[in-house]
Amino acid sequence: MKKILFAASECVPFIKTGGLADVVGSLPKYFNKEEYDVRVIMPKYLCIKESLRSQMKYVTHFYTDFYWRTQYVGVLEMEYEGVHFYFVDSEFYFGGPWPYGNMYEDIEKFCFFSKAVLSILPLIGFKPDIIHCHDWQTGLIPVYLHDSFQSDPFFWGIKTIFTIHNLKFQGTWSVDTIKGFSGLSDYYFTSDKLEAYGNGNMLKGGLVYADRITTVSRSYASEIRMPFYGEGLDGLLRARSKQLSGIVNGIDYNVYNPKTDKDIAVNYSVEDVIKAKAANKTALQKELGLEENPDAFMLGIVSRLTDQKGLDLVECVLDQICAEDVQLVVLGTGEGKYQDMFTYYSRKYPERVSANIFYSEALSHRIYASCDAFLMPSLFEPCGLSQLMSLRYGTLPIVRETGGLRDTVTPYNEVDGTGTGFSFTNYNAHEMLAIIRYAKKTYFNDRRAWNEMVLRAMKQDFSWDASAREYEKLYDGLIEEEARRKEAIRLQQAREAAEAALKEAEKALELAKRAEEKAIRKFSGIEDETEDERTETAEVETDKTPEAASEPEEVTEVLETPETPEEAKEVVTKAKPEEKE
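Given the sequence above, the corresponding structure tokens read:
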């Protein structure tokens, strides 16, 4: 059984602020449970619903030295929809009304979380083959794993994967602050490790020390190696390009299923989508106070209201969009200027524009099921989930060709009758306006082509099944690589031991040979070894037991060197032993 641990700061259904939570909450359910034991660890926020917190069971607790305090670390667990979840409990860090606060406090909070994740593992008896880290909040896990935790054999051989969900958010603060919170030494705060442009960078730690890096689409994996999308880390990502890959996200087809969705007015499938969408549109128009017209071209936006989502383009031409025969439905919160903008136009065109400046999961489903087209003109989009949801409900995406939007939406080609949506290339407001008008023209003037496109969109498979198979290949490759590494070490150790044993055997054989020759000479009446034989035997014995080698004898007599041949002859004569009579 291959053991995988997901580590993340949020996860549905417990807490959600963005697409990260959908990925962490959905992906583990789709792995082959006969081969993979995939578990999830996350903070136990006080703001998690009581109905979920009450189901968590206490496992253990301990105290750890962190920063200048001794901190309590509790461990709870529960199983939800077949997935085992662990929760790191610390009211000091996770007791607020929101999962995130100001960046300074979040830096400390997630330094603590990263260290706690590793500290917990021996206590719960779960040693993962791979820890799959998500975004900057878990960026220090690979760093800690290479640092102090290597002193414990329990952690040897654990591999890490780091997934970038949005490179823009990196967890940066001053070097001294992150150094103090993390407890890491100066060694780690250089430009080739956690330091970046004078600051400490937690996401960079994950990129440097993880064994593999993934992003949430193939195009985004290519884009972030370029300066425009690389957010200052493009050089590092180019350096690690062989360890970098992109796997597109999926959506939970059980949750986003127009056939069984309880939040929409009329359920439908690919067989009756055309009639059902008209009925859903009329119901949504009535709910939001728009003109009830099933033939109106309804355009939806469900998004965080930020510049990244391309809303500055929308701002440039929104008057032109609303002045025409388009109904616009907006759902989301974000920057005040965009909230005010949509609110203003909803009052200016009350029968055409509905601005819902809040978030409602149920209303988002009704927008996906009711709209004809869905607008996502993002400046950059690592993957994007909204376009996948709109495809699932037969609502055609209008997107800018970037990141996951490029990978998941095939632009309409009226010549060969292909495509699942509409796209534009340049980040330009009037290019976006032109493609909206082109989509609207197709809707009104070529309804047959539009309906065929709706059917193609609904037949696309962006479920987590396909993504899970890709992650399984990645996990298998990393686990096999570690197995090969261990086997190489074992073979090297065996080779060294064999070589040492061979040397000992050669020495023993040489000594045995000498002993045999000595025995033969003694048996033959030759009592003494020759001088050369004695020297060789001594050398062999000295090599075998150098500590037992005899000390050289002291020289007690020095012969003077003869100066004449006559003197030399006299010395030789004196040196000859007397012959026996």
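DSSP finds 21 helices and 18 strands in the chain. Try to locate this feature in the token string yourself.
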